[in-house]
Amino acid sequence: MKQIIKQHPSPPLDPIRDSLQRHYLFTLGRDDPSCSRHYLYSALVSTIRERLITDWRNTRERQVQEGLKTINYLSLEFLMGRSLNNALLNLDIEDPVRVAVAEYACELEEVEDEEVDAGLGNGGLGRLAACFLDSCASLGLPVVGYGIRYQYGMFHQKIENGYQVESPDLWLRNGNPWEIECPEHTRRVRFFGHTDYYRDSHGALRARWVDTHDVLAVPYDVPIPGYRNSTVNTLRLWKAEATDEFDLEEFNAGSYTDAVEAKNQAEQITMVLYPNDASEQGKELRLRQQYFLASASLQDVLHRWVRQYGNEFGEFAAKNGFQLNDTHPTVAVAELMRLLMDEHGLGWEEAWEITGHTMAYTNHTLLPEALEVWSVELFGQLLPRLLDIIYEINARFLGQVAARWPGDSERQRRMSIIEEGDHPRIRMAYLGIVGSHSVNGVAALHTELLKQGLFRDFFEFYPEKFNNKTNGVTPRRWLAHCNKGLKSLLDETIGDGWLADLGQLQRLREHADDPAFAERFMAVKRDNKDRLAALVKHECDVSFGLDMMFDVQVKRIHEYKRQLLNILHVIHLYDRILRGDTTGLAPRCVLFGGKAAPGYAMAKLIIKLIGNVARVVNRDPRVADWLRVVFLPDYRVTAMEAICPGTDLSEQISTAGKEASGTGNMKFMMNGAVTIGTLDGANIEIREAVGEENFFLFGLSANEVEETRKAYRPDDIIETDADLARVMDLLQCGHFNLLEAGIFEPIIAAVRSPGDPWMTAADFRSYIDCQRRVDSAFADGGRWSRMSILNTAASGRFSSDRTIAEYRDDIWFK
Ligand SMILES: *Cc1c(COP(=O)(O)O)cnc(C)c1O
């Protein structure tokens, strides 16, 4: 560094190099270039941030000046992953940055590895929010993301003796150079207390929420750059802090330690992300998080409104929208009513009109355990004023239901936002539906199942509210960034317009039968497999052969996703190989990855089973040429960026009707993996887009699942299927757990249970037969490369740019 400066005593330096050196020397005060890559990373982020700041301010000012409608995307999760490379790609400065970094004797990739994932989400729902932010900025839409700045994000997973071991994710330990703290926009969020009624100066009866315990919400802003369009949007994450007077009160009462305790209590709210995917535990702290996010975010929007327009709300609904990412933030419906009435003096009718026109709700799952309900008792203690409002919303709503279906009290009971009983509960999804103008599912099948099943009564009552928005993923991160080899080949073959218009990938179709192109396409795949193999070797010490099929299932571990069915297939392959039945078999490397919720015993046991099967298989020289199995620990966004480009076969094998959409399936498809899957979620649309001959379909349909359930006898299936019987025998005799007697009994019992909700045995035969078809397609190199190319070519529809354009046209700016 000193040397560099001596060589170049004065400008002109190129601006990126100049800025990087300045931050390294003066912002961080480091002069030894080999000091630590972390300082180089920090200096580089400061350099990029500096370039973003002007566009960021301009974006905000333009939106204010033009009086554009702003959409506020409320989500308890944003699974952002790393930001550095995405910013370089979107700002188109990767090349000069690479050169500038080289002066520190460092590869850009090494600097990128200094960044830890922002893991503020569990899985698909949180990653969807992150892809949406990228697409909104890239489409130049005025969208603000609102979320929580958890001190501890998604836990880290290690595998010890095959078991998942969790450790805390201290992602902020070395600071977060992307965020800007904005204490000047701090808001106050209330809890507890009670409602007090009074007459205002006009003699009108009004309510106020008093004797509350307050917590401060301090925002941290993160820039969201669009793809080469000078737009920089904002993700605003709230951190909870104690109020000063809270401390003082206790302090004056003589108890310093109680004051500190109170401070801790307040800051608890944003301490940790709940690690459950697709289920709710009903913990009070979780409700506090939900309300904290909803209240702080709505106050923020209203504060800005009042500053600009005063207490005049006639145009508010035309200029503001709220998209609620699942039921988690639906308490916002009641909170907006409270703020408009109690804080801004509106009457019920006017406030309700505004609420209904601004709120829109996205449903993400049909699983009963995810349908959020809160005990009225708990809710009433924590948020008494909101409970009053929910009762009033419900009473008026049920009045309308009664008017439409006179005397149908059963229907009123079914549709009530309050589930009556000894312990009445609030149905948050119903609050979301009643309080919104739009209710959407996340794939065509999912939306249909919502309309016919879960929300049937509501669909009958409000058919115009329901619509589908099939999920998507951002092609910048999930193709251009993570698959540089394919990006180059695409740029060369069809130009680079696909990055902002993924439909252009269709033009690859004309190259699918060109052997020279296919060869290059598969050479890229092989490079990516090589990289993935290196990761597997490093993490699991298992060698993957590049000529073998890379067969991958990575996603949260959940029974409905059926990692169990996959490992039963692996056991079946192992059994076949040992029997010498290898005709038509394609050598496979099977990779599993994913986190189980720490309290989900069955999911954790499935991880253990995968680990034990992997140990037996990988140690047996007789199967070494045919089969390798690994469980790759700590699946996260950055891992997926290495995994999906190196995958041949994408496993999307959920019980039909249970996976709302899936987005992992789309990332794999974009990167040329072929899918084996059920008719579930977006798989159906993927198959339609790519053509049935390029998709491996198996299993019962959603309707057939429900039919079969009525007389489901897995023991009969096992008895009449010799292959499944042998697999079950291997499990039952303890072949994979010789020194751990009986540990897999719960899994065996689940497969054999007539009540098995996931119908694993029902789909086994269809699955392994389908896997045989996969084998023969893979053995025919020309056929496989064609399928692979056609998958990438048909993936345009699954860009989140398409999804967001639909939200824009049908919901936000209709
Ligand atoms: C895409 C993604 C998911 C969602 O995967 P599904 O297969 O759709 O469940 C979950 N976690 C991470 C880290 C992802 O990148």
Walk me through the structure:
The chain is an alpha/beta fold and 814 residues long. The protein has 2 domains: 55-471 and 806-812, Rossmann fold (3-Layer(aba) Sandwich), CATH 3.40.50.2000; 475-702 and 758-798, Rossmann fold (3-Layer(aba) Sandwich). Helix content is 49%, strand content 15%. The protein has 34 helices and 25 strands. The strands form 6 sheets. Strands 1, 4, 7, 8, 11, 12, 13, 14, 18 and 19 form a 10-stranded mixed β-sheet that branches. A hairpin with a 5-residue loop joins β9 (194-199) and β10. α4 packs across α20 and α22 (515-540) crosses α33. The chain is globular, with a radius of gyration of 28 Å. Bound molecules: pyridoxal-5'-phosphate. Pyridoxal-5'-phosphate binds next to α7, α25 and α26. The site of pyridoxal-5'-phosphate has 12 residues, from α7, α25 and α26. InterPro entries: Glycg_phsphrylas, Glyco_trans_35, Pyridoxal_P_attach_site. One of its GO terms (molecular function) is glycogen phosphorylase activity. Its EC number is 2.4.1.1. Keywords: Allosteric enzyme, Carbohydrate metabolism, Glycosyltransferase, Pyridoxal phosphate, Transferase. It holds the Pfam family Phosphorylase.
